[in-house]
Amino acid sequence: MDIAETYRERNVLVTGAAGFIGSHLVDGLVAAGARVRCLDDLSAGRMANLDASAGRIEFHLGSVLDSELLRRALDGCDFVFHLAANASVPRSSADPLYDFNANVTGTFRVIDAVRRRSRGRVVFASSAAVYGEPLDGPMDEDHPLRPQSPYGGSKLAAEFLLAAHGRCYDLDVRRVRIFNTYGPRQRRYVMYDLLEKLRSDPTRLEVIGTGDQERDYNYVADTVQALMLVGAHPDAHGGVYNVAGGRPVSIRSLVPLLLQEVQIPPPVVTYTQSSWRGDVARMIGAIERLASLGYAPRHDLRDGLRRLVAWHRAEFSPPW
Ligand code: NAD
């Protein structure tokens, strides 16, 4: 299907638009010819992330908790991509009330605003954290839901709220469970942390955890492809979809791949063994349901890491 055609000249609201994934989604929607409204309180996002689309978007500064702002931003919109959230697992364990307000109350405000105007398709950025520790192998969408961080719990509560409102008020709600996404503009999590450590000292590299944690990394352009596909596809109404790369890697094997792109003499690599509260050892997603809509990741890990390191070099001028 022609995804771009769905969005051409349509009004689309992106919440969390100045964040990592949100800003790439905005670029994708602008490229597809959409009229994009952005809403972000800049608590974690940055205006500079929207530079590539500057002059072609409408920006609303404020919180999804502000119903009046939401009402104005939503006016005339056909699609809402709801990404605004506390997106940090460690922050959710340190401050669960903040996480609850941003992720649960914030999502309620969005769906309530959509219900009041009875118009607009909602695509919600949920997370693989709703599953918790996997029972066995890759997790499909029917895997038990046993989140083990306040963040995973708030994303699951938000999913249920959206689905219930969808059924009760006949609203078009779609959910995607994003596994680890990486790429330019991401300023947190493993890859960014490793690059930052190498920037300050290229001779040694301390890695958090045992190195045995497995992740199913997806390059951000592929996550954007998935979000736009789920938002566009007629069969995705009411659906829930995993978004992952489909090629799991352990942190221990990720490290040499990253070092290869950085191109420095091998540093001394050590592992701290212990990790943060709420961390999950294996996060691997089955993506057959999304693939059945026509999704296939276009960037492998090597290609994605090359683009990430190029951005890091341009942004931070490391000594390598
Ligand atoms: P991010 O922190 O870069 O983006 C979140 C954006 O939301 C930020 O720009 C922040 O300023 C904004 N925001 C936060 N609270 C807000 C509020 N109350 N009102 C308005 N704006 C608010 O995170 P990201 O990595 O781009 O994640 C985007 C979405 O995808 C989040 O919902 C996150 O939970 C989800 N997700 C991300 C990943 C990943 O690997 N990056 C994985 C699973 C799920």
> How many domains is the backbone divided into?
2
Q: What is the number of helical segments per DSSP (H or I, 4+ residues)? A: 11
The major sheet is characterized as:
7 strands, parallel
Mean pLDDT: 95
Radius of gyration: 19 Å
Low-confidence parts, pLDDT < 50 over ≥5 residues? none
What is the H/E order?
A: HEHEEHEHHEHEEHEEEHEEHEEHH
* Total beta strands: 14
CATH superfamily of the largest domain: NAD(P)-binding Rossmann-like Domain
Question: What is the overall silhouette?
Answer: globular
Distance between the termini: 43 Å
Using the 3D structure, state the CATH architecture of the largest domain: 3-Layer(aba) Sandwich
Assembly state of the chains shown: single chain
Q: Class of the largest domain, according to the CATH hierarchy?
A: Alpha Beta
Provide a descriptive summary of the structure in words.
With 320 residues, the protein is an alpha/beta fold. It has 2 domains: 3-181 and 219-243, Rossmann fold; 183-215 and 247-278 and 299-315, Alpha-Beta Complex (UDP-galactose 4-epimerase, domain 1), CATH 3.90.25. 40% of the residues lie in helices and 17% in strands. It is built from 11 helices and 14 strands. Strands 3-2-1-4-5-6-11 form a 7-stranded parallel sheet, with helices on both faces. Strand 5, helix 6 and strand 6 (173-178) form a beta-alpha-beta unit. Helix 3 (67-74) crosses helix 5 and helix 9 packs across helix 11. It is globular, with a radius of gyration of 19 Å. The structure holds nicotinamide-adenine-dinucleotide.
